[in-house]
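Structure tokens please, single chain.
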Amino acid sequence: MNLRDKNVIMDQVGMKRALTRIAHEVVEKNKGVEDLVVVGIRRRGGPLAQRLAERIGEIESVKVPVGILDITLYRDDLTTLSTQPMVHRTEVDFDINGKVIILVDDVLYTGRTVRAAMDALIDLGRPRRIQLAVLVDRGHRELPIKADYIGKNVPTSAQEIVSVLVAEIDGTDKVVIQEPVAET
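Here you go.
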């Protein structure tokens, strides 16, 4: 499928501003950062989690633990993705029991990725609380999942695609709405 950029809805400055605002909201809602850890959902949630933890650390003058969660084997669409799914390593090198986990993803859409991530986290331990932070909430939920912290709400059609690009993976920071283009 060929895609065409329709709108850039967030540039590098906008992404940084959104993560800074989310960091302040996290600190305020949790009355500090005691027992707080940040875990990103592998691929673009990982770099966003790292950035969020750095911002929280700057605000509170502490180092916030950061992990990266691979949810491949927890997905409910695993059999439709590939006959040999690519499994990556989960990098949560700290105890999550009794912790407040800020789960970070790039885009909240159907809620299925977040459900899979919560299943994966529960297999690692029993956190006190899981809070969800997303850079973009585009609606169209299929499961009753709601983000606690949102960088930007973006109403979209089901045909549109919201792509978050991060410098660590894509060489640039921006959020783009794309739409399919008929092949000629």
